[in-house]
Amino acid sequence: MTKFDEATQAIRVDENTYDVCLDPGYSIGGPLNGGYLMAVILRAAVDATPFEHPVSTTAQFLKAPVPGPAQVRVEPLKAGRTAAFARATLVQDGTAKIEGLITTATLNEVEPVYADAPSAAMPPIEECVKLPIPKPESGMTLNAQMELLFDPPTIGWLKGEPSGRPESRAYFRMTEPQDADPYVLALAVDALPPVVFSAGMRGWAPTVDLTWHLRALPAPGWLTLLGSGRLISDGWFDEEVEVRDSTGRLVAQARQLARVGRG
């Protein structure tokens, strides 16, 4: 069991309740990363359904949970021959923090009938760069859990030279050696800096709603994260992320709605 497996572990208490312990190592300056929180919820939801993989997840972030004990309450909605549906709620101190609707199924390794090309080209990995290591007082503990190597134009905002377009692109893998599985992918779809940074906006950008789909089980190796946005308006922005494995195959896709960063 890796550190990430332990940090997302869900222990069954009864038919519909799981105990979890939210790990402070996945903080982004205080709040816990949304992808990490989805992975915690999905551990419980998959265990409570008859299928192996979370193929579709919609999560609404009602209130930011804090590190420490919490529970996931799973309500099965329907189970058929090929898919099952459930509602999963992350509860802390008696308050619902995240509501999720999850569809599970069992994916097989098959050749796709059709597969499109990546939405953007990435330079070779040796031409990509890391972000500076955060200072301890920043509370950015998430960075230590994963490796991100960025396409340089998408992090021009670090030097006060944003590209002017909402975009973010990077290679991704866990710091502790671990082949990507659906729970790692849940983290990966929310691992990039908010795409509005490249449009010249900064600050914590809280996610309100995030939907992602597991499209295939990834091959070992680096993942490629391609993030973009379509509209920034009235304090809101959208972010789309596609995740491709080391073979170039699309393995996950996500879309979220978030608030423009504050502070």
Quick structural summary:
This protein has helices at residues 3-7, 34-47, 182-188; strands at 11-14, 17-22, 53-61, 68-79, 84-92, 95-105, 146-150, 167-174, 207-214, 223-228, 232-233, 236-244, 250-259. By secondary structure, the chain is mainly beta. It has one domain: Acyl-CoA thioesterase, double hotdog domain (Porin, Beta Barrel).
Structure, described:
Strands 1, 2, 3, 4, 5, 6, 7, 8, 9, 10, 11, 12 and 13 form a 13-stranded antiparallel β-sheet that branches. α2 runs antiparallel to α3. The protein is globular. With 263 residues, the chain is mainly beta. The protein starts with a helix and ends with a strand. The mean pLDDT is 95. It has one domain: Acyl-CoA thioesterase, double hotdog domain (Porin, Beta Barrel), CATH 2.40.160.210. 10% of the residues lie in helices and 38% in strands. It comes from Nonomuraea zeae. InterPro entries: ACOT8-like_C, Acyl-CoA_hotdog, HotDog_dom_sf, Sec_Metab_Biosynth-Assoc, TesB_ACOT8-like_N.
